[in-house]
Design goal:
The protein is an all-alpha fold and about 200 residues long. Helices cover about 70% and strands about 0% of the residues. The longest helix is centred in the first third of the chain and has 27 residues. Keywords: Membrane, Transmembrane, Transmembrane helix.
């Protein structure tokens, strides 16, 4: 009960910021709703740079997300609760959302699993991939669709999955073979002008 109240209090603290600093709400809504498209575009761009490093990074990110999402669905079988706006009074709800089990946050799972996978490979100078998932996680609380426990659990699952996949995938020769086969077929359809770019 104490933890539950702390979760609600932490939610109120962040969600009420939308009432105090309403001029920031359009930015927060963009992060919570539409930053997903930027992430998808980043995945596509990295893939079609046609470098082995970027493609292995994308593969790791996708596998990490799938693993984290499976773990998230399993966690949701053991614990469930509705979104804050469906349960608590006077929630500052800024976006539309279906009422279902909000534990853990799928958005947070996606952003942490993919962004941490990107950061593990690119690291140097790529602070964007550390800050972006954190901002998105906070935005999901700010707009009223998740509790802190939802995003914290989603973040942990995303990070753990990204670390595990980063360690495992480079050891799997089957992944490298499948990528090599794909690139061979791609080369026949879309010949690369500069083969030296495969680094």
């Amino acid at each position: 009960m104490v933890f539950s109240q702390f979760n609600i209090d932490a939610f109120r603290l962040i969600n009420d910021l939308g009432k105090q600093y309403s001029y920031l709400n359009p930015v927060i809504v963009f992060l919570a709703e539409y930053m997903l498209y930027f992430l998808c575009l980043s995945i596509v761009v990295y893939w079609f740079t046609r470098t082995n490093k970027n493609r292995m990074m994308v593969i790791q990110a996708v596998i990490a997300f799938i693993l984290a999402e499976i773990l998230g669905k399993m966690a949701g079988q053991f614990h469930s609760h509705y979104q804050p706006f469906a349960v608590l009074p006077h929630v500052n709800q800024l976006i539309e959302h279906d009422i279902d089990n909000s534990f853990p946050s799928d958005h947070t799972i996606l952003f942490f699993s993919v962004c941490i996978s990107f950061w593990l490979v690119r690291k140097k100078g790529e602070w964007l991939w550390l800050m972006l998932p954190l901002c998105v996680a906070i935005s999901r609380i700010w707009v009223g669709v998740h509790y802190p426990i939802d995003v914290i659990t989603g973040a942990l699952l995303g990070v753990i999955s990204a670390l595990f996949v980063y360690w495992l995938v480079p050891k799997l020769s089957s992944i490298k073979q499948l990528l090599a086969l794909y690139e061979k077929m791609e080369q026949q359809v879309l010949p690369s002008k500069d083969k030296s770019k495969n680094f």
